[in-house]
Amino acid sequence: MARVGIYGATGYTGYELIKLLVRHPQVEISFATARSAAGKRLSDIFPTLIDTPLVAVEEANLQDVDLIFTCLPHNTPDLIPLVQQALEAGKRVIDFSDTFRLHDADDYERRRGKPHPAPELLSAAVYGLPELHRTAIREARLVANTGCYPLTAILPLWPLVQADLFADRTVIVDSKSGVSGAGRSLSLKTHFGETHETFSAYNVGRVHRHLGEMEQETGLHIIFSPHLLPVYRGILSTIYVTLKPGTSSEMVHEAYNVFRDEPFITVLPTGHFPELRHVQQTMDFVLGFQPVEIEAGRMIIVSALDNLLKGASGQAVQCMNLMLGFEETAGLK
Amino acid sequence: MARVGIYGATGYTGYELIKLLVRHPQVEISFATARSAAGKRLSDIFPTLIDTPLVAVEEANLQDVDLIFTCLPHNTPDLIPLVQQALEAGKRVIDFSDTFRLHDADDYERRRGKPHPAPELLSAAVYGLPELHRTAIREARLVANTGCYPLTAILPLWPLVQADLFADRTVIVDSKSGVSGAGRSLSLKTHFGETHETFSAYNVGRVHRHLGEMEQETGLHIIFSPHLLPVYRGILSTIYVTLKPGTSSEMVHEAYNVFRDEPFITVLPTGHFPELRHVQQTMDFVLGFQPVEIEAGRMIIVSALDNLLKGASGQAVQCMNLMLGFEETAGLK
Amino acid sequence: MARVGIYGATGYTGYELIKLLVRHPQVEISFATARSAAGKRLSDIFPTLIDTPLVAVEEANLQDVDLIFTCLPHNTPDLIPLVQQALEAGKRVIDFSDTFRLHDADDYERRRGKPHPAPELLSAAVYGLPELHRTAIREARLVANTGCYPLTAILPLWPLVQADLFADRTVIVDSKSGVSGAGRSLSLKTHFGETHETFSAYNVGRVHRHLGEMEQETGLHIIFSPHLLPVYRGILSTIYVTLKPGTSSEMVHEAYNVFRDEPFITVLPTGHFPELRHVQQTMDFVLGFQPVEIEAGRMIIVSALDNLLKGASGQAVQCMNLMLGFEETAGLK
Amino acid sequence: MARVGIYGATGYTGYELIKLLVRHPQVEISFATARSAAGKRLSDIFPTLIDTPLVAVEEANLQDVDLIFTCLPHNTPDLIPLVQQALEAGKRVIDFSDTFRLHDADDYERRRGKPHPAPELLSAAVYGLPELHRTAIREARLVANTGCYPLTAILPLWPLVQADLFADRTVIVDSKSGVSGAGRSLSLKTHFGETHETFSAYNVGRVHRHLGEMEQETGLHIIFSPHLLPVYRGILSTIYVTLKPGTSSEMVHEAYNVFRDEPFITVLPTGHFPELRHVQQTMDFVLGFQPVEIEAGRMIIVSALDNLLKGASGQAVQCMNLMLGFEETAGLK
To answer: Where's the Semialdehyde dehydrogenase NAD-binding domain (chains A, B, C, D) (predicted)?
Structure first.
């Protein structure tokens, strides 16, 4: 049994992670930290019968574990020292924030408007997307778990880039996310009365903080419009691409053939599309596509995932399985 | 045109009140106060095109108005001085809190566990339920706008008390409320992820703070279980009563005949029940009942209202109309 | 008082229409027809206290009325004879179906794959969009009430066409609609269990039956992806356009200036977007836009309306007001 | 590996059953029948990647299986012959309808107003509630899977009956169910537009068809009010009992001690209540209680389950495990 620790167990991703790990046949949770909830149990905080104890960060003993998951809020100042300390102690780290996802410190600075807080860690980190970086993840000391929105664009677009099918490298990604994507922190944006029975766009165009990952992994120029859905789990993205004139449905299926042995990716027959219900509460990433005007190369792709599983905690377990030499799907089926 | 002022415009009741008042033919809003939003407009805060300016409390001029509405959070220390000051200045007051709803300071102290902060105001206040206290409201200087839950019990029960139909004066009120009843303040209880697609009971039995109003107005002994519904507006209460053996459907309809000229109350035919959709976004209070076992006197009543209109801001306007000598339904149809 | 008749009162658009007409100061409802519900009252079918009687078509007397609304299901064979009969009797007609929206019978045949059933009526009909065809509507005998999706594209795009701002005449319209857009007929698509807590795309690309209206009114080439939201009312469309290089925010606002006196259209400041809550239960059409890359002419527009009011029944009343010489906003504010 | 057959795979309970059985380590599905969907696969009908083939009833071979599940709509005339044929062929049967739940044919006739169609089967059937009838289920040829509403009353009340704690044997059960309880058949009652964002009571009092089971298993007299919640899964019941004066919290916990080794039942500490989120997508039955007025014996109990798992398909698998000699929790954790 491997031993793991979780920093930040009371957000939605921490909670989902614990639910996966308690069922995992080869792992045991050594500690799970919380701030205001330290001293309580998981079942005091969430609607679950799992009663994992929550401890203060000071009580978590790094020496007890082989690997840690850091599920702290974006921009927590504690993150960098914690990661450094863990790596120095020879522990492996899977981080859920967007701190280590870009490879290039200059790119980070240009996009965020401030220098990266620990460029030496940045260059060591591996982007935690097994379908693209499986070999590197196996060996990685520090894995940057991917963003949930970016996955819905990267996985459908990367095979088409590999197959050199693009005529226009500008791509429109119109994404719709459930509310759990905004986390469990209190804000009017996630207040029932401001979210239920409505729908809205936000941060449209070129400004969302996760645009960088999408462009890094695909090499494309992306126009990205996120929207907030009145559902709890799941992201569905509708993607508009202009491929080379005459690109057929068969050519696209052939490009997606690179995913044929992937345990968590399903490509639907032409003209079929996933809906959120297909993927909620699962690790499945499902995509479908429809050529719209073949001579003009116009195609629409629809992709969907559960943002808390394949889009966050489940994918982190997939990475952990690779890092610790387990079956890649262990605890995830 | 009468002139009114609103203290506390950025909660849900304040917002609904402004929406009603801007359409009211005989009233104009002289000021609407806010704390953190002072200096902004209503349309900056809510999804509305109404652009009423929001001012700090210090900028609100009591001399400008005939009547004020105080829509401040429960237990705000500013409330008592504000009400005193307004009454001394000869202004009339409709208060939305539960501070002035009980007539008896001893009853207040027994139920709340602390003395009433201004007993002299308590005895002057009128309980703002026009169907029971229309005459007193017309003359009142200070009206205590009713609670939303209590109305769903008082209106169906009071006529049966008047008609002396009860065999057992203990009544079970099982209430289900939309989330807007919990207000716009941030709390996990109103976070989308904790409310959506779930349902729960809270404060069951004899502990809810609005039990006192129900018992004061009906003289009954009430077991009250509130529940939180994943809808935005509306309360539906299912009420279990034991009437005198042999009480017939006709006798109950006769008791409800006291409401026959009420503009906002509808009693459905026997065996028909309201649902939330009947009353959402309206001033209608709708009730239906079903004798279950006539020999045993068992009857079930279902009542429904929109908690923000007949249960709060609309009823406040109804009281204002009485106080200012307008048509009782002005601005409410 | 003008007298009107409604054919098809038990669908969602018929119901909304009656709710508007009973409050309209210059109109009275002479009859409202239903099929299986004939003999009942509106309050037997819908959660309303409005008790308009529902009669069989045979009992509706065309001679009693000045104008009829036909709110029948798409493709009802009864529609054409009914419209012909009404026009011959000198009555004016507002039709809710998509039968009379295209001007050109050839265009209709090409898009639908079958000849138009009454081309002579087609050429007489006026497309019922007051903001574009106000003068023609005033005189029209037959008005084709617009589709709800098309409006969300036509109103934001037409001013930019007028101002000759397009560099690329292909436009992407990604629309998200509440479930009421699918009507009240029973289908798995509108079953709670298949719609709630999910989200899906359908008929993407070039296949939706309302594409023709959008292209006719704007002269643009449109890629259209409708999606089904788990909300009841409202449509929000996110629109991706490529304007001439260097088109500034000011130039776009100037183009939208054509709407400055429109009672039901609001253009938000640059970078602000409507959400569904702004428009639900109202006649307001709200749009906002954001230049994304000015040199490349890329812009994103977001528009929103209530599909049952500005998108259907409210707009029909707006047309009726024009046709009968009333104030355009009568009964709609 | 045991082999099982499913009759009626395209309702919600059939679908949930297949999802459980495909993961069950000791069972394989020999056939799953459908009517209009025969010839398709499960993944054509539901949002799942499970592609179990659906066959017509005529193609299902009873000889292939050890046990069948009959998940047919209530009152299907085919049910009785099918069950008879299976029992004669020596197969065991778990039936999901309410046909075999009452032991007494006279009681059935009195409650339903018509004679039981196969009284000889009725007397052979075992009520499929393992917590009360574990031994009988192991040996049963025909198990009547329980109703979902009844469970929420029987499990909390039966231990209190055993402990002889009741002062008044009339009990009020106020239940709130998600929409999936109404099944997948099309009706206005389950249309999104008639269910979403509303709440209603139906069949209140003494008329619901599942009252008989509750009274048979508890021996109490029950007043039952079901309500329809705008959620998909789960039932929460609020139960009002009058126990013997002075019944303490400890005495109640002692009565519930009979459940201490039950794998799927959790009794919360006094004053804590389940909410739907605790039980959705799980086999857990959770209950909590609160003494309200101890001298008067008044107590409120809240119970919750997932109507499709512990309330239907999961419980059927629990029964199957007992019947086939497997670990009771196999495939259910």
So the answer is: 3-140
